[in-house]
């Protein structure tokens, strides 16, 4: 049981340090958050790809909160211990026109609806034979910025926000720098699974309930967020090894595009799937990594795809 619950109706869009807190807690207390999916409820279990054209981007990535932590002051850090994630059993992944690493290559909308066992958390099925292991986490998790006014929830920032760090799962501890009194913590954009990089711009976007405990680290003066994990972060999906493609050159962004494009071509050719289907699968199950950044003038970016997803 948790001392406080914030229901899904109590969400907001963007960050603003003038938003009134929904609850006020003492350090050491825990809160349960009911979250809404990243579309803000605009997509449902019955949605089709054509519905993506009607998305109101002013309503994407709603976050539940805020929470005021007593004693939190600028210069401190809030330590958030992620206690649990209770997924809903459904979600979606989309190629949204104009969004994603390869938006110019995939201009048409595409939507995949997921059904999964929220109790057993067995891998979610994808097409004929695909199985994506589930690992729930919150894509957007942060505090309010000091700068006044309403700020978009889309870009990450010093106080957190849309971090999309897939290893912020149950048991992880996240430390966020405080810029305003009370911190004003909110969370949302929950994912049932995502690869490092979230290359098409969406993961398995899935509403769920998140529980977290809050503590203070006085005078931490963190320049940026940091986190710890409770154990290994790769064993859940590497039993059969990986296929990996690379991009090499003086531009990391171009290298990332080349590495992902190479994997899309490989998966499409080997498994007979449409390129956009391979693109979305890469976003939820593959990992984009910087393999080398010291041997100038060229850097190496690699994209790792776990073989067990399709074997």
Q: Widest sheet: strand order?
A: 1-4-15-6-13-16
Average pLDDT score: 96
Largest sheet: 6 strands, mixed
Order of helices and strands: EEEEEEEEEEEEEEEEEHHEE
Number of strands: 19
Radius of gyration, CA atoms, in whole angstroms:
19 Å
Structural category: mainly beta
Beta-strand content estimate = 25-35%
Name the overall outline.
globular
Give the helix level as a range of percent: under 10%
Could you give the topology of this structure?
Blueprint: E1 4-6, E2 11-12, E3 23-25, E4 30-34, E5 63-69, E6 77-87, E7 90-95, E8 110-115, E9 124-126, E10 130-132, E11 137-142, E12 160-162, E13 173-177, E14 183-191, E15 208-217, E16 226-228, E17 242-249, H1 252-271, H2 275-285, E18 287-292, E19 299-306
Parallel strand pairs: 1-4, 3-5
Antiparallel strand pairs: 2-5, 4-15, 5-14, 6-13, 6-15, 7-8, 9-10, 11-12, 11-14, 13-16, 17-19, 18-19
Helix pairs in contact: 1-2
Description:
With about 300 residues, the protein is mainly β. The protein is about 10% helix and about 35% strand. It is built from 2 helices and 19 strands. It has helices at about 250-270, 275-285, and strands at about 5, 10, 25, 30-35, 65-70, 75-85, 90-95, 110-115, 125, 130, 135-140, 160, 175, 185-190, 210-215, 225-230, 240-250, 285-290, 300-305. The strands form 5 sheets. Strands 1-4-15-6-13-16 form a 6-stranded mixed sheet, with no helix packed on it. Strands 2, 3, 5, 11, 12 and 14 form a 6-stranded mixed sheet that branches. It has a 3-stranded antiparallel sheet with strand order 17-19-18. β18 and β19 form a beta hairpin. The mean pLDDT is about 95.
